From TrEMBL:
NCBIfam families: YfmH_fam. It holds the Pfam family Peptidase_M16_C. Residues 182-357 form the Peptidase M16 C-terminal domain. The lineage of its organism: Bacteria, Bacillati, Bacillota, Clostridia, Eubacteriales. It comes from Faecalibacterium hattorii. Residues 63-174 form the Peptidase M16 N-terminal domain. This is Insulinase family protein. One of its GO terms (molecular function) is metal ion binding.
Length: 440
């Protein structure tokens, strides 16, 4: 990348970054001329954080606690936070992943009031036995919804095959049985351990200034010194062998679904370069600009959604390929053959350049949208990196780097296969549903 172009990209992505006395990391991307603002308040706490030592005391959680806590954060003694956001005109939401929980809102007015709702609800948790019991029923319905998602079942099924004990094997929402074990004490322990400002990031983009964000933080005591919580995550040793090589289930899907998973060596927490490189390799092997993707699509062997992704969290790194196909084993053999060919002959330099430029385009395009810009800042900051550093890391990657990485990743000996076969119920005629409605 030329020095001039590099500076232009850096200027475009130059979010303001501050670490407050409380330990909170704050990032702001002012976007003059935009009417909306998107704010994300995120913590490095996800579904895999189930065993930890807090101030010398060990805590062991059932599956689904991080997701359950995300739900409960919206309720306090004063009522429901969604109702408060509705009064300010903000559109609020939240989500939990394997390694983080994020609370967010988008607003065009009363921004300070919405910031107060966000910082207040996350900063002052409130749990009782009664409110937990109520939420267990609600989340139980959500768990059943995930059970009906073929895409999600592919991911969880592959993780169950690839890993013996790593908590990534468990569904993010847990099970109805596991969330029944949740107590107020568990939730308060999680807040003390992982909702400390030093473990969190506040990112905002749009019609906002750093001064506005800092003023809100001051109102909620985040400019004051906070003692650092002594938290140690506890991990069981995970071998590089597979728990299983294959899994099959039947679901109400109209077309067979399949997934291939490759277990890779876990990456160091600060090794974001390898994750970026693996993602580029997947783009070259089976992305929309790859020869394999065109052959599969033209022959009707896969749907347009076929592709690969890198799943990386603490203690875990795997590469997953998922899609729909009437001939999943044929697709598997074609994919393995293409991986071996590229490993032997090297990455196509033209395809590598195209994929790399596509990644550039995605990074830059995100800077022009308030939601994408804030999300991008928060995502990278949780991994200890800025948008500018991500751009620079991408610029430094070469096709030779990809060739070298391919010599040790995507090895068939560390591969598992997941099949979802139709159970026949998805093909029932719609008239049956209409008759049921008429009877009601």
């Amino acid at each position: 990348m030329s020095e001039l172009r590099s500076q232009a990209l850096a200027d475009a992505a130059a979010d303001q970054w501050k670490i407050l006395p409380s330990g909170l990391t704050v990032l702001v991307q002012p976007m003059p001329g935009y009417s909306g603002t998107h704010v994300i308040y995120a913590t490095r706490f996800g579904s895999i954080d189930r065993d930890f030592r807090l101030n010398g005391r060990e805590v062991h959680l059932p599956a689904g606690v991080a997701h359950f806590l995300e739900h409960k954060m919206f309720e306090d003694q004063d009522g429901d936070a969604f109702a408060k956001f509705a009064k300010t005109g903000a559109n609020a939401n939240a989500f939990t992943s394997f390694d983080r929980t994020c609370y967010l809102f988008t607003a065009t007015q009363q921004l300070d009031e919405s910031l107060d709702v966000l910082l207040g609800m996350v900063g002052h948790p409130y749990f009782t036995e009664q409110t937990i019991a109520k939420e267990q029923g609600i989340i139980g319905q959500e768990i059943k919804m995930y059970d009906d998602s073929a895409d999600w079942r592919l991911i969880t099924g592959l993780c169950e095959c690839l890993y013996h004990s790593h908590p990534i094997r468990s569904d993010i929402a847990g099970t109805c049985e596991s969330i029944a074990e949740i107590t107020p004490k568990m939730l308060y322990d999680c807040c003390e351990a992982f909702y400390a400002p030093g473990n969190m990031v506040l990112a905002a983009a749009g019609n906002i200034t750093m001064e506005q964000i800092l003023a809100a933080c001051e109102r909620h005591g985040l400019m004051e010194l906070r003692p650092e919580e002594r938290v140690q995550r506890l991990w069981a040793e995970e071998p590089m062998t597979l728990a299983a090589t294959e899994k099959r289930i039947r679901m109400p899907v109209s077309k067979p679904c399949f997934g291939l998973g490759f277990k890779e060596t876990p990456l160091a927490p600060d090794d974001l370069r390898s994750e970026l490189l693996y993602d580029l390799i997947l783009c070259c092997v089976c992305g929309g600009m790859s020869p394999l993707y065109r052959r599969l699509y033209d022959s009707g062997l896969t749907n347009p959604g076929f592709g690969g992704e890198v799943l990386r969290v603490d203690g875990c790194c795997c590469i997953l390929f998922t899609g729909e196909s009437d001939e999943p084993d044929t697709v598997k053999q074609m994919l393995l053959g293409e991986i071996e060919r590229v490993r032997r002959e090297g990455i196509d330099r033209e395809v590598f350049t195209l994929c790399k430029n596509e990644k550039y385009g995605q990074l830059i395009e995100n800077l022009e949208n308030v939601e994408d810009s804030a999300s991008q800042m928060a995502d990278f900051a949780l991994s200890g990196q800025t948008v500018v550093q991500q751009i620079e890391a991408l610029a430094a990657l070469t096709a030779d780097d990809a060739d070298a990485a391919l010599q040790h990743i995507l090895q068939p000996a560390r591969m598992a296969m997941m099949y979802i076969e139709p159970d026949g119920t998805a093909d029932l005629p719609e008239a049956d549903d209409e008759e049921t409605e008429d009877e009601e």
